[in-house]
Amino acid sequence: MKTLYVISLLVLAGLNICLLVLTVSTKPSIAYIRSGVILADYEGMKEVRDALDDKKELWHSNVDTLESDFRRALHQYNSDFKEMSGDDRRRREEYLDLQQRNLNDYRRSLERKARESEDKLLEGVLEQINVFVEHYGREEGYDVVLGTTADGNIMYGDAACDITEEVLRELNSAYRGEKQ
Length: 180
Hints:
Elements lengths: L1 H24 L4 E5 H7 L1 H38 L5 H54 L4 E5 L15 H13 L4
Parallel strand pairs: 1-2
Helix pairs in contact: 2-5, 3-4
């Protein structure tokens, strides 16, 4: 009977140890990423920003050219004003109005085009980051990977849970096509 009692205690102790190991090993693994750092330092994002800056610079130079043409036409109108007939003044004023409307329309069009282009490019980069983080989280055994924002969606996280630098390093390596 004593032997049965000891065996029962050993079995119960073994079961408790197994349950404890299972409980500890199934504890969720959570990490966080400082999103602002990823967005600022990801090479893919830098490339998109550079491309957008180049486009914006080209568009602004086009606007500058149109503005210069308009100023030149306005200056010429003012110079010729005293010598022009009423019909000439009216025609030149209509032309200047049309030129100014076209300039303003072009500016608005470029602003809309810039926003749309930026949204499209950023959407692609953010999708790349999200897919990469999901893959990274699975590969590294994380159950949840959170992202911090300036809005404070994570109020505190132990630095040991911060995987920003590791993810950024791997993300940039993947972007450059380096073997991981």
